[in-house]
């Protein structure tokens, strides 16, 4: 499987790029945190210059330094949200698929119900309801409403796995369900879980970006790439100050494409 | 057939009751009630309790839920806090705009998917196939906010080909000019609505790929077979598409300041106008449920092999 993935050059390049970007953002973020937060009242919303290669924001802060910090926060938050979503979805799918029958039917009804809910709107409502809003709360809300895709796929794979001889054998000697799931199902489903994680990562970044654009993102204490997109909410910025939002837009675009190619290649690698 | 429809409708009804409970609980959790902003600051606590009693806020939640639900069945959805208008009237004005946008974007999606699917199938393995396959995955992966912002900047402000926002130009005269103006305003938001960076990647790109497998026939067979068969994935998509579309309207309509229910929802939440926000939430979920039911029925009609429930 790994060889199959490595043979797809474009995907390997994309994967390396994401890792490199994350690495650079973490290292760079440690250096720029202090310097880029400096407010300058005389240099507000300036276009790119030699001193500030990407210009300054409406508070006079250096955009390049902010971009580094924000890339780091965005990627880490997206990874956290995705991890939680995948954990929810995988657990749900495993239980439905392992037990099958009535349990499966009941759980699938729940899944259908949650899939029908208007996700973005409900996230917005929950975000306005809770008083303490931070990355953890956002991750909980988003994964509570976004685990269905994972669950559906894992459940399908688990259903076909439960009739395999080695699973029947394990069950016939009286192994407890938790043990069979942990020892037999999880290792077999690991490639699927990894692919789901990759594909979901792009989705998490997408939703988080949209929320931030609308102004329902995390508070300003955690600046993210979406925070920069929010500048484009003001027509004046959108029309005349592209340096405020264009680098963030380009970066999100590239990151999403890279995640996609990586996910697609992983998917092909496990299917063959 | 009738049994299947009844079964689906029953599931749908249970789902709707659950949704209404969810919306009711959410509205209970929201700070403030229908009196907020309507009373003078100098009101005494006694008088306030009395008014709340008159409006029935001191009853147990079960009774309030029942009266709220029966109000909905009678068509009474409450009064908007900020617009001082019946919510039904307020939302009704915007709902048509949202439906128009949705229908337009679904048509574009269908036309593009069929034509690209056929092209990819015809030239399987060569560059057009690869271009369509990777292109559809790539396009589907862009977040709507990102694509919307870029579209407004490039086509709206820089090239000035299309209007950057709104639903119709002011001062347009004559029915034809009005229709043209509306269509021009639909193009950018409808195209933006096609991308689905928010959904786990590639779910819908698979639709195009499933069409690809049907695209190998010669052109004479096209209308008879491919198009008819393309309806099945299109219909199975339309249900989830409707749900995703209505859920996503909040974002797309806000980006393009398009006067639909999605923009109204975001504005209502920002202004803490809960009756309006709740109603839109309920309406959206209802439309999604109805869409799923409808696509199940149509799918069953088109291909009886597909089992329901």
Produce a short descriptive summary.
Chain A is 76% helix and 0% strand.
H-E order of chain A: HHHHHHHHHHHH
Q: Quick one: biggest sheet of chain A?
A: none
Whole-angstrom Rg of chain A: 22 Å
How helix-rich are the residues of chain B, as a percent range?
A: over 70%
CATH architecture field of chain A: Orthogonal Bundle
Explain what you see:
The complex is a heterodimer of chains A (272) and B (309). Chain A is mostly helical. Chain A has one domain (74-271): MetI-like (MetI-like fold). Chain A has 12 helices and no strands. The longest helix of chain A has 38 residues, at 177-214. Chain B has one domain (87-307): MetI-like (MetI-like fold). The longest helix of chain B has 37 residues, at 219-255. In chain B, helix 4 runs antiparallel to helix 5, helix 4 runs parallel beside helix 8 and helix 9 packs parallel to helix 10. Chain B is mostly helical. The two termini of chain B are 13 Å apart.
Characteristics:
heterodimer; A: 272 residues; mainly alpha; MetI-like fold; 12 helices; elongated; B: 309 residues; 11 helices; 71% helix; globular
Show the helix and strand layout.
The complex is a heterodimer of chains A (272) and B (309).
Chain A: H1 2-6, H2 9-36, H3 63-99, H4 101-116, H5 119-129, H6 135-144, H7 148-161, H8 165-172, H9 177-214, H10 225-231, H11 235-240, H12 246-271
Helix pairs in contact in A: 2-3, 2-12, 3-4, 3-6, 3-7, 3-9, 7-9, 9-10, 9-12, 10-12
Chain B: H1 2-29, H2 45-54, H3 61-73, H4 87-122, H5 127-140, H6 144-158, H7 175-194, H8 205-212, H9 219-255, H10 261-270, H11 274-302
